[in-house]
Amino acid sequence: MRCRNRIKINHTALARMFKPRRNEEHEGGAKLAPASRVFSALRGIGRAPQWGIALVFLAMLTVSWRRWTSPISDTGREMDLPWRLLNGEWLYRDVHYIYPPLSPWLNAGLYRVFGAHWDALLGSGVVGGTLIAALCYRIARRLLSPAESSLAAAGVIVWCVFKPAGNLISPYSFAALHGMILGLGAMLLTLRYAESAGRSAAGNLLGAGVLLGLAAITKQEFALAGAATVAAGVFYLRRGQRREACRDLALAGIPAALITSIVYGGMLRAIGARTLIEDCHLFYTHLPASLVYYNAHRTGFDRPLFSLLQILGAAALMVAVARTIAILAQEERRRQPRAWLLTAVCLAVVLGVRLLSGSQWDGSPLRALPLLLLLILFLEWRRRVNGAFSPQLFILAFYSLAVLARVALRVPSGGAFGGFFLPTSLIVLLYLLLHSLPVGVAGFSRNPDAGRRAYRIGLALFLTMLCATAIVFGVRYRKNFSFEIATPRARLFLPKSSGPAIAQALQFLEAETRPGESIAVLPEGSDLAFLAGRRMPLRHQILIPGLMLPEDEQAAIARLRDERVRYILILNRPMREFGAERFGRDFYPDLGRWVEQNYRQVRLFGMEGEAAPEIGHPKFFIRVLAAR
């Protein structure tokens, strides 16, 4: 499949983002060579086999094998919730859950087919990572050659799928993984709609609508990003054609609305509006202060001016990198004092912002993505108004910006969330690095050879970063996740900081409790119950501050008392990201006080020799309390 000719008209406009202001003609008055010629020359440089994507995926899979799970935070919900549904409990009514229902039902089905083993869900994570790589390759082919698209997919595999601090094989939420795949699929179909006509266009829109409907019952932000992208793509293509635009929007909107209304309508009828809307916050309503605090921090709106400063610092870094590549691509580098001065000024800005930001910004240029994507959309919309026809980059940039709304002013370079939001942005960045920047360099220097050198420099930079990152991640997996545990329900390697205490707690439960017996793990960590084959009786699996109302707290006490729970495990899980730290002191004091009055500590794992350490201690520990 050859790179499509219609993409060529993008390059002249996008190159202006990197070209200094100067006359677009030669000194003698002759115009520059068309950007399409430069692009055709660059396109022949470097060929990589597509099977390289599979090799990169297999290499990262091998080096990280069974080292994907970071215990306690969120993993208990992902492990234990499907098992509870399989045993007859009702989602939302019997088990509190703040996301839509598709993923828990799907994972419960996997447990039914393959057995209640963590490998069943990890296997689905591997399949999901494979789908993400394949989708990203197909998306990248709308802008890049096969070899370049393979590089883009390899970048997504390393930086998103297998990033140790938030990989997608064992994600913080399978709902986010499934929603991401559905959103990427809907966006790919939108790109295909932009390239097709007649029945083919209608089929792509219908398919996008089905995927958006499924995303809406999986993870809403991906459905919203996909729906906004479909609408933007239709308006971009159907400018001035109101009837055709309404028809196309209906083709995607009707199946999405049908799926959403049938599922949510049935849930509202079976479970009730109050439980879904007020208690589980399914539609982002009645949010407790803790979730508002958490989301404000993630989006960067808790300190907006500070976040904007970091965006400017990241933008300065992008400019510095682009200018350095442009300088190195010139034959007479020493005769560019102004270019060197601009680069130095940008680097000084980066250093200043980095010092002011401290730990808030790791120096990654990705923080400037919203600004860059807005600029691309502005330029592409102007070109559409002027009669140019190039929807692929517009649609890709729009989706990339829409999906970043979850982290609008504080785009992460990794962590638990980065891998879900960055794949399409990485494709855009590679396109700018390998096409827009070389075209700009060739135009500025009036020398196609300079553009070719800029291409080679950009390619070498990308490959160097990719290989270095893969090596670093491999070392981290092997070094940090080195404590092996094996139970009838899982075999995995845990971090050295928490693995020994978890293994000791599992051995204690195996010796002192019966299979299926109820135990409570507070404030989070029901993965211990799942791994030990025990039952978590509380409706709330994660005691996020403010998520339980006073009556919910009393109901939890009554459940522990009525079921005569013999053992309660207190884990060192501070909730700082939700504005509180210590369970029983900073939040849910009634439940914490009742537990301390009715239970006594019998074992302490992870901090032997201590009496009763408090949550928030630098070392991980597990307190085992037995009923008095």
Task: List the topology elements.
Blueprint: H1 11-15, H2 35-43, H3 51-63, H4 75-86, H5 102-114, H6 118-140, H7 146-161, H8 174-195, H9 199-216, H10 220-237, H11 242-271, H12 273-279, H13 289-299, H14 304-329, H15 337-357, H16 369-385, H17 391-403, H18 415-421, H19 423-445, H20 448-480, E1 481-487, E2 490-495, H21 499-512, E3 520-522, H22 527-532, H23 550-562, E4 567-571, H24 589-598, E5 599-605, E6 622-627
Helix pairs in contact: 2-19, 3-7, 4-5, 6-7, 6-8, 7-19, 7-20, 8-9, 8-10, 8-17, 9-10, 9-11, 10-11, 10-17, 14-15, 14-20, 16-17, 17-19, 19-20, 23-24
Can you characterise this structure?
It is a single chain. The chain is mainly α and 628 residues long. The chain is 61% helix and 5% strand. It has helices at 11-15, 35-43, 51-63, 75-86, 102-114, 118-140, 146-161, 174-195, 199-216, 220-237, 242-271, 273-279, 289-299, 304-329, 337-357, 369-385, 391-403, 415-421, 423-445, 448-480, 499-512, 527-532, 550-562, 589-598; strands at residues 481-487, 490-495, 520-522, 567-571, 599-605, 622-627. The strands form two sheets. Strands 3-4-6-5 form a four-stranded mixed β-sheet. Strands 1-2 form a two-stranded antiparallel ribbon. The N and C termini lie far apart (71 Å).
